[in-house]
Structure formats: C-alpha cells, structure tokens
Specification:
76 residues; mainly alpha; 5 helices; 68% helix; globular
Length: 76
C-alpha cells in the first residue's frame, strides 16, 4: 500500500468533516445527498470517512449539492 503524506491525510479529514457537517445542516441523508450529486452512496460515505481521494469533478458535485463553495469544504 502506498504511503500517504501527512498533508493528504489532514486534507481528507478536513474535507470529510466539512462535507458531513454541511450535509447534516442541509438535513440530507447520505443516500439523498449522493443521489443529488449523481454519486454512489458508498462513495459519498467514503468521502465522509476520509477514505478516498476526491477529484475536482467530485469536489464540484459535493459543493453544488451542499450549496457550499468548494474552498469552504477544504478550509480548516
């Protein structure tokens, strides 16, 4: 398994927490949010768990679905 840099782990944790917080604030289930973003619910779940790298396309979908600027999803 490839070594994951500390900065990448930190960004994954920050993104995961921000996505979850925004989803809960929007009162959306994982399944509903994923459907709106045209993502598989399991992928959304992995994003919130900080288990996957997110492409710019996925970041845009998350942002649009949650009504939050992409930069806010990456901000500590």
């Amino acid at each position: 398994m490839p070594r994951v840099a500390a900065s990448e782990r930190r960004l994954r944790r920050v993104l995961a927490a921000n996505v979850r917080r925004a989803r809960l604030a929007a009162k959306l289930s994982v399944q509903e949010a994923a459907s709106r973003a045209e993502l598989h619910w399991r992928h959304w779940q992995k994003v919130e768990a900080g288990e996957v790298n997110v492409t710019l396309r996925t970041l845009g979908r998350l942002s649009d679905t949650l009504g939050v600027e992409s930069s806010k999803l990456l901000a500590e």
